[in-house]
Amino acid sequence: MVTTLQHSLCVRILSLVALYGSAHALAGSQQGLFLGNSTFESAALFRLLSDFKAFTATMEGRIVEANGSEVASWTGWKYALRDESVRIEMDMTRFKEGGKAASQENIEQAKRWHVDQSVVIADGKERVTYTLYPGRKVYTPHKLKQSEVVAWQDLNVGTERVGTETIEGQACVKNRVTVSDPAGMKTEFLVWSATALNNFPVKVQRQDGKETAILCFRDVQFKRLRANEFKPPRGYRMRTGAELSADIEAETEASGPRD
Fold first, then answer.
1. Which pLDDT tens digit goes with each residue over 63-116?
2. Residue 198 — φ and ψ, nearest 5°?
3. What is the pLDDT of residues 183-232, one digit of tens each?
4. Are 132 and 121 in contact (CB under 8 A)?
5. Which DSSP string corresponds to 115-136?
6. What angle do CA 226, 227, 229 make, to 5 degrees?
7. In the prediction, which pLDDT does 149 show?
8. Which residues are bridge partners to 61 per DSSP?
9. Which string of DSSP letters, residue by residue, matches 134-156?
10. Mean pLDDT, the chain, as a whole number?
11. Fewer Cβ close by (within 10 Å): the C or N end of the chain?
């Protein structure tokens, strides 16, 4: 029988994966959030990246409070953009909450359930996101409502040069960038653009109240992944979040108690 603790752990782990994808990993696509209360912030960040029609990179990020304490961080995630679509390969073992990595118990359980590795795909044209679990060969879709979509193409960008800095060996121009929509909504970023990479934004920072979000892109390559990399692979089964949770609970119950 699945215990209350096991059920709680299952829900917690799947919720964490969803959190990584929607609240952090998808920062930089019009479907995700970049430390804001609406998709406007994410559309604004996507607007900054939209000059680069296709690229791959390794992404890391941090969210910190004003006193310097870490809210969340992640490293070594693979990021790819192609036109209006984003793909992010995520690893639960490389994510920290409150400065602490996931507990060994949670990691081991996630590995047994084959949800420790996941891929989040945001298809901007179809306005849908997919969370893929390669270990299970399943995916969960989320179709966006019209109210969840911001037309990044209509956003205006204003740039003010702040200075120059070197970020991990890359000579960069540091700019204060303001992104606004026709209705007057706006948000502000600090952007470090690498001159040797066609002014690609290797570091982006945004402050929201008492928290600051920082994204860094490393190993940037201007290559175009195949279109099928931004769709669920053939052979994967579609499952809702509730169905996936029920599948895992059934598997746990069938396997019996662990020592």
1. 888 888 888 788 888 999 998 888 989 887 887 777 776 667 777 878 888 888
2. 55, 35
3. 888 888 999 999 999 999 999 998 877 888 888 999 999 999 999 999 99
4. yes
5. -SEEEEEEETTTTEEEEEETTT
6. 75
7. 64
8. 74, 215
9. TTTTEEEEEEPPGGG---GGG-E
10. 79
11. C
Q: At what angle do helices 4-19 and 241-255 cross, to 10 degrees?
A: 140
Among 15-24, 66-75, 106-115, 155-164, where is mean pLDDT lowest?
15-24
| 8 Å CB contact between 93 and 116 | yes
Reading the block at residue 98, the tokens are: 């409150």
pLDDT of residue 34: 39
Residue 218 is predicted with a pLDDT of: 94
Give counts: helices (H), strands (E), the chain.
Answer: 4, 14
Cα–Cα distance measured from residue 48 to residue 68, given in angstroms and rounded to the nearest whole number: 26
167: closest CA among 193, 133, 137? 193
**102 within 8 A of 113, measured Cβ to Cβ:** no
Q: Interior CA angle at 121 toward 8 and 178, to 5°?
A: 105
Q: Could you write out the DSSP letters of every residue in 42-101?
A: HHHHHHHHTTSSEEEEEEEEEEEETTS-EEEEEEEEEEEEETTEEEEEEEGGGEEETTEE
Q: How far apart are the first and last CA of the chain?
A: 15
Q: Which domains does the chain have, with CATH numbers?
A: 4-255 (2.50.20.10)
Q: What single-letter DSSP state applies at residue 233?
A: P
